[in-house]
Write a structure and sequence with these properties.
This protein has one domain: Arc Repressor Mutant, subunit A. 34% of the residues lie in helices and 19% in strands. The chain has three helices and five strands, in the order αβααββββ. The strands form two sheets. Strands 1-5-2 form a three-stranded antiparallel sheet. The longest helix is centred in the middle third of the chain and has 15 residues. The radius of gyration is 14 Å and the shape is globular. Bound molecules: zinc ion.
């Protein structure tokens, strides 16, 4: 039986549809920072075979949309209204046909 590494499993999960770092962190039982690093790594290594799609995080309170950030991990506070009710950014991996 093939033993998959966490990054290989993550890659498979990301192909299955939109998912947030928070959700991945809960299902893998690894801190969000570790998952964010993994995704950063996957993003670099996938470059020729596919594309990592990102739906940016959004403020639930005022609707402020966080632009694509250097850091993959979502923000914790809205710069506009200072609300902490942030809808997580979501990720999905789309493979080249
Ligand atoms: Zn806001």
């Amino acid at each position: 039986m093939v033993e998959y590494t966490r990054r290989q499993r993550l890659t498979e999960d990301l192909k299955n549809g939109w998912i947030s770092i928070r959700a991945l962190s809960m299902s893998y039982k690894f801190p969000e920072k570790v998952i964010a690093d993994d995704i950063e790594h996957i993003k670099k290594s996938i470059s020729r075979r596919g594309k990592l799609m990102l739906k940016p995080a959004e403020c639930i309170n005022c609707g402020f949309v966080f632009k694509e950030r250097e850091k993959i991990k979502g923000p914790s506070k809205c710069p506009e209204c200072k609300s902490e009710r942030i809808k997580d950014g979501m990720f999905m991996l789309v493979e080249n046909k």
